[in-house]
Amino acid sequence: MSDWLPDRSRLSIHVPFGLVCGIGLIGFLLVSLQHWRRGTVVLGLALLVAAGLRAMIPDERAGLLAIRSRVVDILLYAGFGVVIISIAMTIKGLFG
């Protein structure tokens, strides 16, 4: 455990990841309620939020959003987010 970090600071490191997970859970909930297009768009938005947070928050405060280097994380989060949203918006049929 990191004794040099106060309790509030240790908890605040995980807030960005919690925010992204919360948005992702809303997306999964929408998909499970048969709103698959809206749900996948929300999942893509969660990845775009992760990219934005990774770009703004310093490495020490990024918590579980920091997996690789900052540039690689931003490019992958944003790239996957855009791809998921664009695929969800271009697929026709099924349940709308």
Description:
Helix content is 69%, strand content 0%. With 96 residues, the chain is mainly α. Helix 2 (15-32) runs antiparallel to helix 3 (36-56) and helix 3 (36-56) runs antiparallel to helix 4 (70-90). The longest helix is centred in the middle third of the chain and has 21 residues, at 36-56. It is flat. The N and C termini lie far apart (48 Å).
Total number of helices: 4
Beta-strand residue fraction: under 5%
Roughly what percent helix? 55-70%
Integer-rounded radius of gyration: 16 Å
Run of helices and strands: HHHH
Give the number of DSSP strands. 0
**Structural class given helices, strands, pairing?**
mainly alpha
How would you sum up the global shape?
flat
The rounded distance between the terminal residues' Cα atoms is: 48 Å
User: If you average the pLDDT, what whole number results?
Assistant: 89
Unreliable parts: none
Biggest sheet layout = none
